[in-house]
Amino acid sequence: MSQEKKYLTTASGAPVGDNQNSITAGHRGPTLIQDVHLLEKLAHFNRERVPERVVHAKGAGAHGYFEVTNDVSKYTKADFLSEVGKKTPMFIRFSTVAGELGSADTVRDPRGFAVKFYTDEGNYDLVGNNTPVFFIRDAIKFPDFIHTQKRNPQTHLKDKNAVWDFWSLSPESLHQITILHSDRGIPATLRHQNGYGSHTFKWVNKDGEAFYVKYHFKTDQGIKNLDPKVADELAGTNPDYHTEDLFNAIEEGNYPSWTLKVQIMPEADAQNYRYDPFDVTKVWPHEDYPLVEVGKMVLDRNPENYFAEVEQAAFSPGHFVPGIEASPDKMLQGRLFAYSDAHRYRIGANHESLPINRAKSPVNNYQRDGFMSHDGNGGSAPNYEPNSFSDAPKETPENKISPYEVSGFADSVPYDQDDHYSQPRALFRDVMNDEERERLIQNFADHMSAVTREGIVDRQLENFYKVAPELAEGVAAKLGVEVPASVKE
Ligand code: NDP
Ligand code: HEM
């Protein structure tokens, strides 16, 4: 058959004779089961969806590269950061958190900022948000927290009583909800926002010295946000506004970029730092640890196929490369399990070999088989270790983690520090200007006005009062209620 003109085939490659009329018994039917092309079309269509991500379901992705612009090799031996000018291909997926796959882009919600670096030593994933902190600081609270962000089990409606019930009983959320209800809670586009690794990670250099780091991707486009009324309108008229903007910008050659900076804390400082450095509800004030430039990330290529590249992308905070390790942060530790577990459920045990996820460096191990094993499955090479084959993959002791000391009793222990207030206070009083403070108060009041269950608003006003009395009084005035007297005593 001529290959000059592409011809239509079944999934098994046989040419299709008719793709418009099913095979029927006579002109009026019925349809014959003999039409295997029809059966295949209907059956495959029924299987088009994989489960959407349980959080961050709505997203947009892009390819690009990361280029080192400053020598940080004294802090980390990570090969992709080893010399100025080194370029590494990467893929990013931006997302909202709470909405479903088809939900609107312009809602008030943190934005996911998940980056996959295809390094020469395997994939390094930095799965962050556009906020430097998070709502909670122990993984054990995550499923409960997300239930309050999703739909009510009876009404299937979004439930602001649940949201504020949980937040008001979890004062560690105050920092993140202050950022969320500030202007930055609704970015103008995905290009006009910063990204943060949020957690503290560990960098290790060639001499085995360890440093704790926090990542900041600063947008080179400048910060721009949406007016909430405009955002509400856009949610109705163009729910894919952010997705469209990113795609069009890249298509037009208007490549967005971010400058990656890090804060670096010598390992020994962690013992006595004024904040728990592993508490993801806290930042490290810049005056303590200034930003050090690392490089530039540029997005210059749109995905060719949304499902193959964006929906099947599997980012995991557990994907590290030598020179970058986890910190003891209890949230991060929970995430090290959760993501690859989600990927095995969502896209299968062999998701790492899908083209978007496959490392560009060699992958050699003794894992085998499972659904959809399609990359040769290790061929005839041995599938066990220890073995006596000289050419079989061997561990490399120089890539063991950097050892760190732990002590104490195994127990369910709360964090030592309960200061949920000083950092949101610094943001409210020292960073925001009068107009920003006023809009923050309005945004809180607009969201809380839908709270009807008794006690929740009072409890939240008490929390706000501990951040700043004028914040609590401002929100209370807009809601037409009083700050409870008990908190003022
Ligand atoms: P600085 O004055 O040195 O920095 C203030 C920071 O706040 C800048 O990084 C700025 O980002 C960021 N910012 C400004 N407006 C908002 C907003 N509405 N939501 C989130 N971030 C915003 O202050 P400190 O380092 O002493 O920190 C003071 C407070 O600033 C912190 O308590 C925290 O709430 C907030 N912050 C601090 C960060 C940190 O890593 N230290 C990071 C982000 C926020 P940009 O420079 O891009 O405009
Ligand atoms: C997505 C769990 C905290 C950022 C996800 C997914 C799960 C999950 C299961 C879906 C993964 C998939 O199906 O591909 C958790 C748990 C957390 C937690 C258990 C706390 C213990 C955080 C924090 C951040 C974050 C603190 C940011 C700092 C993201 C992002 C995505 C995501 C960006 C989307 C990744 C993508 O684009 O594919 N999370 N998460 N999460 N999470 Fe978390």
From TrEMBL:
Catalytic activity: 2 H2O2 = O2 + 2 H2O
SMART domains: Catalase
EC number(s) recorded for this UniProt protein: 1.11.1.6
Gene Ontology MF terms in the entry: catalase activity; heme binding; metal ion binding
Record bears the keyword Transcription regulation: no
UniProt similarity note: Belongs to the catalase family.
Domain called Catalase core: residue spans: 9-393
Major enzyme class: oxidoreductase
InterPro entries listed in its UniProt record: Catalase, Catalase_3, Catalase_AS, Catalase_clade1/3, Catalase_core, Catalase_haem_BS, Catalase_immune_responsive, Catalase_sf
Signal peptide interval: none
Protein name: Catalase
An individual GO BP term: response to hydrogen peroxide
Cofactor(s) named in the record: heme
Annotated Gene Ontology cellular component terms: cytoplasm
Active-site residues, as the UniProt record annotates them: 56, 129
Keyword flag Oxidoreductase: yes
One Pfam family per UniProt: Catalase-rel
UniProt keyword list: Heme, Hydrogen peroxide, Iron, Metal-binding, Oxidoreductase, Peroxidase
Chain intervals for the UniProt region annotation (Disordered): 1-27, 372-398
Record: residues binding heme: 339
CDD domains, alphabetized: catalase_clade_3
